[in-house]
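[agent] plan:
  1. take the single chain provided in the ticket
  2. run structure prediction with default settings
  3. attach structure tokens to the ticket
  4. add a short note for the reviewer (M.T.)
[agent] executing step 1
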Amino acid sequence: MMNSLVGRACFFLLAVLLMGCEGSFTGDPPENPSSLLGQGALMELDGPYQVKDREFLGQRYLIVMNTAEALRFRNGGLIFYEIEGADTFSRRAALDLKIPPFSGDFEVYEREGAWHVFVTDRRNQRLRVFIWDAIEEEFEEALDADGNPFVFETFRNPREIILFTDQGAKDYLAISHFSSGTLQFFDLEEFRWFDQSDLVERFGSNFAQTIATVRREELVGASFRMEVENSDTMNLRGASGAQRAGFGINPGLFLGGDQSFFVYASNSASALFGFRFESFVNSANLLWNLRAEERGFRDQDGNRVEGSQERGFRGISRDGENHIFAASRADNRIYRVPSSEFDFSTNRNQNTRAYNENAQNFALQPQEDLSDEEENFVIDREARKFPRLGDLTVNGRLGAVAADLLWVLSYEARGAGGRGFEISRLYQLELLGDPPLYRIANSFEFAEGDAPQKLLLLEDLDRLVVSGLGSHEISVFDALTMDLLFKLE
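[agent] step 2 finished; step 3 output follows
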């Protein structure tokens, strides 16, 4: 009986958390957590990864998550650059904050007049919290009533943090977990995890009849599970059991609406997961089976075409009309999915729309006049080049308008069996028509080993920020002309 009830909620009870781990960040944590604290020019840019545009202390900052790669990940850090104008990013070294090595993401939030920084500590499976002391003008760890640092344990491998407001005007952090395919929610008003008591309050004492949760001791979260939308179960064979259970979810988007809707991309399968916070259900998933593109095939002349040997989405973004853009590693195409594609009813065995094998539904198509295969990020089958698409971003978020520009990274092919270019590239795509065709308007070549990771569009300033994990630099481009304006070092 319980199994059928769990199935109706489109969840599953996770008995064993997957123990896998992805990412290049490794190393030992500091011996004493207090050694993380301290102020003033703590670090230089060294393996910058995540970048965010946030308000802090009443000013606008570009905040950079530093991995401290050259220091063998002894400590990571956050570095603050005040954005004083389109071309003025001023380093504020007094705000430097050391964070745990192996951190996945961060978020900034003002609570009760105090500024908080939240960090996902991947190695120790915790959410770490730091507070800005306005009197001492330095960060300190958030302490509980007994004067001890808060310990907010997470599921395996916490990665991305999304700040959102639900339909009750309450602020939360959504924490995704790469290895276990789960979500946790941190209540910023009550300063605690969303837990079983919240489920009872929302759904009554019989919540277990409609809600399935993941539990480890007192932890409660939501877990993903793909079940096929129709009787054609063959389409689900494009993903393994672990991938269908959400292994590799990262990154995600908050689309909002009356259901507080989230979309998460899978890093390990060609899939998008939908989650409705208000009803707490993994309500609608989309799955592509790009088997031929991954494994290779023979063309109409009988010639062998090499496959990418990769799968999953590496970048995800949205425009003002809630079109979802995702960069596919399997076929190195950009997908533009209307959010309405997730609007289908769900019940047991029907929460996933699995497209036909090798169908590329919603993949953007190029204009017919594109002829230079070498400069095109679509697979050049003759040269067998796979640019290995990465992070992407789009415009159109300042208003309720569709994007007409898109920026996407293609990663160099180190460790990819020769697939891809020898250097990383940044492409600017112009989107024309509805549904749009794309035209490559500009491109930029990075130096070998630069390893660009994240894109951040400052749309109001027409600036595009790129973090260089290998170059140890932040590159700032004119988002329209694609001119490299300056670097932060």
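[agent] step 4 note for reviewer: The first strand starts at residue 48 and ends at 56.
[agent] ticket updated
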